[in-house]
Design a protein that fits this description.
Oligomer: single chain
Helix content: 55-70%
Structural class: mainly alpha
Order of helices and strands: HHHH
Radius of gyration: 18 Å
Shape: elongated
Strand content: under 5%
Largest sheet: none
């Protein structure tokens, strides 16, 4: 979909607000845009630590690390979005491409970590043979 007006000019795109968010991703995007940069950096750092340490955790404890990875992906997305903010015509397109790729990777990592957390916790609760040890 394009936001081009009849006269060929690009129409302004309204940023989603927390109250007007249409899905969870729009809600998180609006919220990340309001967070301080330091908070997003801390979230990203803790998420990175959790992602690196999760494979070394004992059986099913990785499921408890997954929500921290989700928070880290949120912070990473917010930082990339902040650096993608319009900075004039001189912004390098390669830099914009990299930051856009980082945003999409953060969305994918966060979504996969959320699904993995739900799967791991449900496996523990239902009793599929795995136990937290």
């Amino acid at each position: 979909m394009s936001d081009i007006r009849m006269d060929g000019q690009q129409a302004p795109v309204a940023e989603p607000t927390i109250d007007g968010a249409k899905n969870i991703y729009a809600l998180l995007a609006a919220r990340a845009r309001r967070e301080p940069t330091q908070r997003l950096a801390i979230d990203a750092a803790f998420g990175g630590i959790a992602a690196v340490s999760a494979p070394f955790l004992p059986t099913l404890w990785w499921a408890l690390a997954c929500p921290i990875v989700v928070v880290g992906a949120y912070g990473l997305w917010g930082l990339a979005d902040r650096h993608l903010a319009p900075r004039g015509e001189d912004a390098l397109s390669s830099r914009r491409d990299v930051l856009t790729a980082v945003k999409w990777a953060a969305v994918a990592i966060g979504t996969i970590a959320a699904v993995a957390a739900v799967h791991g916790l449900l496996s523990a609760l239902i009793g599929s043979g795995h136990r937290f040890r």
